[in-house]
Amino acid sequence: MENKLRNLYTLQNIDSNLDELEEMKGDLPAEIGGLEDRANELRSHKTALEESMRNAFAMRDGADSEILSLKEKVERYKSQQYTVRNNREYDALTKEMDSATETIARLEKEMDQLEGKATTARNDIAIVTGQLEELNKVLEEKRAALAEVSRANEAEEEKYRHDRQKLVVRIPKADLATYERIRKAKRGKAIVSVKRGACGGCYNRVPPQMILELRQNNRLFMCEHCGRILVSDEIVESASSGA
Ligand SMILES: [Zn+2]
Predict the structure, then answer these.
(1) What's the 23 CA to ligand 1 centre distance in angstroms?
(2) pTM of the model
(3) What is the 189 CA–ligand 1 centroid distance (Å)?
(4) Smallest Cα–Cα separation from 233: which of 206, 21, 160, 167?
């Protein structure tokens, strides 16, 4: 059991060291995450704008060719009017021509609107592209800064990770789960020593009876107030001496 407690305490030390190294990275990881989210948003906004621009241009081109064929039709009707046999046929052609001319006018209006829509989209795309370029520049700088910090601590971090891996396999899964759960809840320290009769985590008094039992190092004791695992000085010393 002493071994188990010592392993857990050693794990805590390694994790605290890793936390410290992580802290040196400062806000950079969070900042980079936020910027990446924003960049993704801008990219999908840009894709939507490009699609809307393409559609507007395609519809404009469709209207354009429809106008062309309608104009041809009007010309045809015009020449046919010279060959009609009676007024009824003449009027029928006039009606067709009027209808085609009306449609042409409507389509021309639509073309203008589509042209305007496509142009607006193209301008917006230019703005978003500029924003993205700006954002990517900042992202690159932040990533470079983070890489520099990481590089400086790489060897140390690697060593702790290696030590951690070796240690974790020697700790029972249930204890490890308890440890991880408390560590998460307490944001860092899951295991603390008893100092002058008080919990090293929350500084509340630990009952003398528990201190006595705890010194036997034969089971896990939790602080009644904060729920952290309490260990004796003996464990602390043997762990820090690397035994
Ligand atoms: Zn406590």
Answers:
(1) 24
(2) 0.59
(3) 11
(4) 206
